[in-house]
Amino acid sequence: MIYNHGYLVLAGTLYLLFVRRHALQKLTINGSPLAIVLLVGASVALLFSQAADIQVFRLLLAPIIILLWGWSIWGRDFLKVAGGPILLLCFAAPIWDDFSPLLQHITVFFNNIFLQIADIEATINEFLITLEVGAFLVEGGCSGVRYLMVALFLGAFYGQLYYRSLRSKVLLIITAGLFSLLANWIRVFGIIAAGHYTNMQTSLVKDHELFGWVIFIIFTLVPVFLISSRLESSPQETTKDEISGTTSGRVGGKHTSVFWPIVASFLLIWPPLVPIALQAKTEKVAQSWHPTLVEADSDWRGPLKHANVWQPDFSDPDIDLSGVYVSNDLKQVQLQITGYRNQSQNKELIFYKNRLFDSADWQLISTEKREIGDAYRQSPNHVNETVIRNKVDRAQVIVWSWYDVGGFLTDSKFEAKVAGAFKKITGDSRGALWALAGRCEVSKSSECEQQRKAFTLFLESFLQ
């Protein structure tokens, strides 16, 4: 688990606040209008990220909102005493995975240098390092992001505990981060070298978790500990006033009424209360939503069930309707409706696990936006056109897809996410993928053009 260190981050934050408890006890109400304005903006952003179910933003906003809440009530003295410890919570936010690809490339780059120095012949193809004895894949877990997070946190924690100079704190954090990267490069090289010299017989090739942390201690914790004592000549003395609880002690400020803690506390708690207040309406709207496949007219037959040419790869949808329609001149169109009555975490329309097709079965040929006009009541004027090929029978399929979010139609994932947040705030959390699919005549020069015409005729017959 990459974020197991989150418990360590929480414990460190609570410990620092405990150490500074006397300073916190001496704070007096000194409301800040600027902080209140910023807290309003942050609470609104939290409400929307909560409605859109953007977990990263929600978790990043949490420590920021706590800081703004304290600043709104006790003024800048709160930031001086509690700002640093609370910001440590950012090291537990799930944003660090995004750095893995970059760190993987850097790890491979330096290991290439180490291999050349050690005169070990290797062929490198992106993240794959191939030796005569075997191959090593530098996966996301080998990027060093875990060691980087822990090192940065420990550097920041030590700086908050002992340093008062911002320069010293920043230097220690940067130093810890650089040594953690070095330790990971050495760790990966050690595994590769062990595999090379033992003809892949060493257990390190498959089980190197303990080895990694031993390297981290030797090449990160020990050097950082030695360097930390030299960044400030007398670190214990520099924080004597802070630990004993001395603050600026402004007395007789203009904003000392209970108005400030009341307003700030309301802004702190209202975002979680909105979904609770709207829960009954959201459930009612969800249960009353029953999308259905369209009924065939005189020019088409269908929907024919269990005759699908394609299906999306969605995670546990509430609605999964599919049927194939056949025109009098034997044109075939599949109509697909897949979605969720009440979007929530891991059950949402725009979700990284939800894909238009299963890449294990299909190969992407092309994707583009296609304008179809605004004459159709169940589709936007632009749709996503995707052409895919089956890996088994090589059949080529064209898909026109779009999103319906509480009645708002769009071809854009971003617009669907934003609209979903707005709709959810009003008590409507419905969301569905609509799509038309059909086989292309790849033997013809026009390829999918005939199927595009069939889609247009279908829209004119049923969705106009």
TrEMBL record:
Record's keyword terms, sorted: Cell membrane, Hydrolase, Membrane, Protease, Transmembrane, Transmembrane helix
Transmembrane segments: 33-49, 56-74, 145-163, 170-198, 210-227, 258-278
KW Metal-binding (keyword) present: no
Cellular localisation: Cell membrane
Domain Methanolan biosynthesis EpsI: 263-433
rRNA processing is among the record's keywords: no
Entry-linked Pfam families: DUF3485, Exosortase_EpsH
Membrane topology, from the record: Multi-pass membrane protein
Protein name from the UniProt record: EpsI family protein
